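Archive maintenance. Older records in this collection stored only the sequence; we are now back-filling the structure field for every entry so that each record is complete. The fields below show one back-filled record exactly as it appears after the update. Entries are processed alphabetically, and DUF29 domain-containing protein is next in the queue.

ARCHIVE ENTRY
Title: DUF29 domain-containing protein
Organism field: Nostoc flagelliforme FACHB-838
Length field: 154
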Amino acid sequence: MTPIPKSAAQLYETDFFAWTEKTVQLIRAGQFGQVDWDAVIEEIESLGRSDRRELKSRLEVLLHHLLKWQYQSGLRSGSWQNTIDEQRNKILDLLQESPSLNSYPEEVLAQCYHRGLKAASNETQLPIDTFPVECPYSIAQVFDVEFLPDAIDF
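Back-filled structure field:
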């Protein structure tokens, strides 16, 4: 039995991948009247939000690991440094692909720091008040591939 073709709008709700293929076919064929433009607009908006969410998430992880590096220097590992390097690289890739996000890390630094701080406290089991209330690193330091904070000894 051959499946009955669905409209682009129906596919969007039931089979996202099929919807993307159908939408591309319709646009390439110039059949713009059959395109579910509301869904296309929704997906384009979602792409922009996705980049912002990814940037924030990577910044949180980066700050978390910088704090661990600084406050648990006796446990430093190549894995921690690799995580720091990877997050920096991925953030820089995002910023190169979307230069209009260049100011965004500075805008969300405080928020990301507090989330990274909580993760560092949880993971290290150090009391949260062990760490600075505000981010001790400038955005330039956070992104500087040569920067690793000095150890804090207790």
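Update note: The mean pLDDT is 92. The first helix runs from residue 8 to 14.
Entry marked complete.
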